[in-house]
């Protein structure tokens, strides 16, 4: 049986939705808005879980209306609540999305940027510990359509844009 590790936000309540949509052996790590920091201790524990359960696939998942990200997007200034860096990063990306994107999908673009960033962080953290890293991706859950959507490519984000 295939095994899959999901990074989710506890406010989204997605465990049962994921279990129904993806019938496999699922494991979960939760953090508010997928704000997890990949410090040495956390990465060692993740690596240990991947090895002990023979997990080959990892996904970051957020609901399109994730309240933690939405609140960070709307805040005027970050509150002192332990999520300051996360909230500031989300606000910067929201402002960037408004500057480059003509459509109304700034929220999805901001979520995509955030999740692409988490993918890069985890890949980098695991690269020195694993010869055969897991396949890492991210999806966004749309409650209104009861569907999972692929995130936007990392090519459209702030660090990838250049002008000739």
Instruction: Please give the share of residues in helix.
Output: 40-55%
Structural class: alpha/beta
Strands in their spatial order, largest beta sheet: 2-1-3-4-5
Largest sheet: 5 strands, mixed
Average pLDDT figure: 86
Provide a quick synopsis of the model.
By secondary structure, this protein is of the alpha/beta class.
Structural account:
The protein is of the alpha/beta class. Helices cover 41% and strands 19% of the residues. The chain is built from five helices and five strands, in the order βαβαβαααββ. The protein has helices at 15-21, 40-53, 67-74, 84-100, 106-127; strands spanning 3-8, 25-30, 57-63, 135-142, 147-150. A five-stranded mixed β-sheet has the order 2-1-3-4-5, with helices on both faces. A hairpin with a 4-residue loop joins strand 4 (135-142) and strand 5. Mean pLDDT is 86; it is low at 157-164.
Write the layout of secondary structure elements.
Blueprint: E1 3-8, H1 15-21, E2 25-30, H2 40-53, E3 57-63, H3 67-74, H4 84-100, H5 106-127, E4 135-142, E5 147-150
Parallel strand pairs: 1-2, 1-3, 3-4
Antiparallel strand pairs: 4-5
Helix pairs in contact: 3-4, 4-5
């Amino acid at each position: 049986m295939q095994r899959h590790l999901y990074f989710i936000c506890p406010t989204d309540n997605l465990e049962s939705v994921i279990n129904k949509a993806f019938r496999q052996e699922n494991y979960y790590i939760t953090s508010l808005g997928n704000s997890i920091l990949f410090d040495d201790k956390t990465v060692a524990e993740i690596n240990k879980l991947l090895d002990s359960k023979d997990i080959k696939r990892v996904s970051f998942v957020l609901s399109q209306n994730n309240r933690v990200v939405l609140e960070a997007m709307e805040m005027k200034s970050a509150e002192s609540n332990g999520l300051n860096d996360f909230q500031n990063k989300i606000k910067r990306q929201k402002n960037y999305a408004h500057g480059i994107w003509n459509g109304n999908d700034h929220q999805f673009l901001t979520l995509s940027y955030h999740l692409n960033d988490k993918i890069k962080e985890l890949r980098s953290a695991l690269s020195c510990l694993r010869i055969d890293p897991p396949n890492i991706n991210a999806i966004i859950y749309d409650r209104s359509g009861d569907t999972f959507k692929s995130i936007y490519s990392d090519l459209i984000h702030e660090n990838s844009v250049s002008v000739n």
